[in-house]
Amino acid sequence: MNRRMSSRTVSLTSTFLLLAAGGTAACDNDEYVDEGFYCADANGVIVDEDYCDDDGGGGGGGGFFIWHSSGYRSGYPIGSRLPAGGSKFAYNDAASRAKFGLPSTGKVSNGTIKTSVVGKGGSGSRSSGG
Q1: How many Å apart are CA 108 and CA 91, to the nearest integer?
Q2: What are the pLDDT tens digits along the chain (130 aa)?
Q3: Most exposed among 32, 92, 110, 120, judged by the fewest C-beta atoms under 10 Å?
Q4: Sign of CA dihedral 49, 54, 59, 63
């Protein structure tokens, strides 16, 4: 009788673990990530963040983008090239800014890290908006 109860307990425990693992796998699509953001030119060379300020006081204009990646960390200096694998969007693209939880206008400081960006796209997708 003990042997039979043990088998039933093991069977129920195994079933529960399989269900829990399946539920965890289903949630992987909405994984939380940290994204790093930088103002850079079309080639990914970091420039002063004033070039990505669209509030009128900065030197914004064509050819500057907000680059982002979960692989970017803070502290890259102006003039350095960002590591490969990042994505970009136009510095004045309010919809893309909002998508990543950034202010819809104004300056985004180089090296800004947004924590807990959920399923927002991350590295690999390129948007060059105009």
Answers
A1: 9
A2: 555 555 555 454 444 444 444 444 444 455 678 899 999 999 999 999 999 987 754 445 578 999 999 999 999 999 999 999 999 999 999 999 998 889 988 989 999 998 865 554 444 433 434 3
A3: 32
A4: positive
